[in-house]
Amino acid sequence: MGIIVNLDVMMAKRKISSSELAEKIGITTANLSILKTNKGKAIRFSTLEKICEVLDCQPGDILEYRK
């Protein structure tokens, strides 16, 4: 399986919408959707940092490795 993105879980816990998060971190809702649905090939550390800042979480809360 590889790396699993649990961004939707953290967003639900923090009660924040996709459009609100996208605006706060400075990416499009389309790119955020790609991340949320595990279709992204990469994520910039700067984007990951902004996501963690807005959601008040650690990268490990969002990213998970599964064999």
Structure notes:
The protein is mainly α and 67 residues long. It has a single domain, classed as Orthogonal Bundle (434 Repressor (Amino-terminal Domain)), CATH 1.10.260. 58% of the residues lie in helices and 12% in strands. The chain is built from five helices and two strands. The chain has a two-stranded antiparallel ribbon. Helix 2 crosses helix 3.
Q: What is the H/E string?
A: EHHHHHE
**Major beta sheet, specifics?**
2 strands, antiparallel
Q: Report the span from N to C terminus.
A: 6 Å
Helix percent reads 55-70%
**How many helical elements?**
5
Number of strands: 2
CATH structural class:
Mainly Alpha
Q: In the CATH classification, which architecture applies?
A: Orthogonal Bundle
Helix/strand-derived class?
mainly alpha
The total tally of domains equals 1
State the shape. Answer: globular
- State the CATH topology: 434 Repressor (Amino-terminal Domain)
List the helices and strands and how they pair.
Layout: E1 2-5, H1 7-14, H2 18-25, H3 29-36, H4 45-55, H5 59-62, E2 63-66
Antiparallel strand pairs: 1-2
What is the compact description of this entry?
With 67 residues, the protein is mainly α.
What attributes does this structure have?
mainly alpha, 434 Repressor (Amino-terminal Domain)
